[in-house]
Amino acid sequence: MPDPSIATPFIATPSFLTRPRPNPGDSGASSSDRGGLPRPAHAADRRDALTSGGEGVVSRATSLSIGPAHPPVLESAHPPGLAAAPPPGEVARHDGAGTAPVAETAVGTGTIAAAETAAGTGTIAAAAPAADLARLGSPPRHASAGSPDGVSPSRRAASTALPIAAPVARTGLAALGPLARYALDAAVTDLFVNGEAGLWLDTGHGLEPAPDWQSDERGIRDLAVRLIALGGRHIDEASPCVDVRLADGIRVHAVLPPVSSTGTLLSIRLPRVERLGLDALQTGGLFGTGEAAEAQAARLRAAVLGRENLLVTGAAGSGKTTLLAALLGEAPADERIVAIEDVAELRIDHPHVVALESRQANLEGAGRIGLDSLLREALRMRPDRLVLGECRGTEIRELLAALNTGHDGGAGTLHANSLADVPARLEALGALAGMSAAAVARQTVSAIGLVLHLERRGGIRRLAQVGTFALDPAERLTTVPA
Prior knowledge:
Layout: H1 14-18, E1 48-52, E2 58-62, E3 64-65, E4 103-108, E5 111-115, E6 123-124, H2 130-133, H3 153-157, H4 180-183, E7 190-194, E8 199-202, E9 207-209, H5 217-230, E10 241-245, E11 251-255, E12 265-269, H6 278-284, H7 290-305, E13 310-314, H8 320-328, E14 337-341, E15 353-357, H9 371-379, E16 385-388, H10 395-403, E17 411-415, H11 422-432, H12 437-447, E18 450-457, E19 460-471, E20 477-481
Parallel strand pairs: 13-17, 13-18, 14-15, 14-16, 16-17
Antiparallel strand pairs: 1-2, 3-6, 4-5, 7-8, 7-12, 8-9, 10-11, 11-12, 18-19, 19-20
Helix pairs in contact: 9-10, 10-12, 11-12
């Protein structure tokens, strides 16, 4: 019989999914009722959980303990011997005499993420159902000088180019653990954890610090490892930079030391609850104001219905994915859209959308599926519109080839500083794929009908420039306003 004071690893198997869970009220529940996972003898013990990451990879996920300023996240499921969750409006707390409930989250087919945290003041459970998170209500306001109710003057006064509809509850937040309460606010689009330096939020009006957040480096690293494992990938010193997608399109990017000299970094992109169409973007001022905005929106609709190939450019966070999704939502309902992304982010309001997502190699270096391979596969799926979420490497060759061989109505995004810088970016990507500047120029002019460049200034997103590609007298690629 194992020593109950020693935390033993738990490896999820399909039989765990079918094993009936005992009644919480049974007093005779033992460690065998928990799939052979014994309880630690003391509250200070911390349990590591092994999470199957697909491709035969097993990733280590650990629990997180933060300071007393954070209330524990509630859980609806609890093992025998623990009290049931409190009624709505109350927060469950542990007295340090036992352990917090086991949290089980499905990661993929046949995959279970199990984590257990030591009970005690301020301990956060590894995962919790979204319904229980809703009991906590709205996240606390972040106090600022001259604002007694905690709402910053900039957030109150500024208007965003992307309108916020009536509050709608987000789903899939349980995986974020202690960060979940900040993500409950539908206005929050990004969360940034900068090691022990703190947490920053983006609500569409610029970044704001969260003064009530605190955690040490070990806790943040454990959280990063667990979030990456929930996305089916692995992060450690050998692979210190990883990008994954969690439930409901939540995107997580993590960087570990020593690559990061300021501690573990987390960048979390939260998809908007509502799917914004062109009308909503026009109302929010993305295309300007007045008749000019109406004319711009009508022009974009005509480009979509006319099956022009579109390239949306801009800096990170400028709204490229949001505009691309809105444009594709204008496509006729009888068309088939095939979207290829490195990490799935597009949320297209269309009845016929299929999505392909790239995959990193496993620990043995096998199993990688790149965007270039997915583009070739997508051509065999009879797409009416072929969409590349973001062009960032050698896949530019396959994209230009596809858009030059009868696959019109396609679209993609590209990072660029301005409309004038787009040709240089395409030439650089083409060089990675072994294409000459002349080949890139001629194929781009033939393939791309319209370039839409977005900017974000002072927290306001706007369509800054619209142009087309052309060849200059030296046969080099250039852009001209359209």
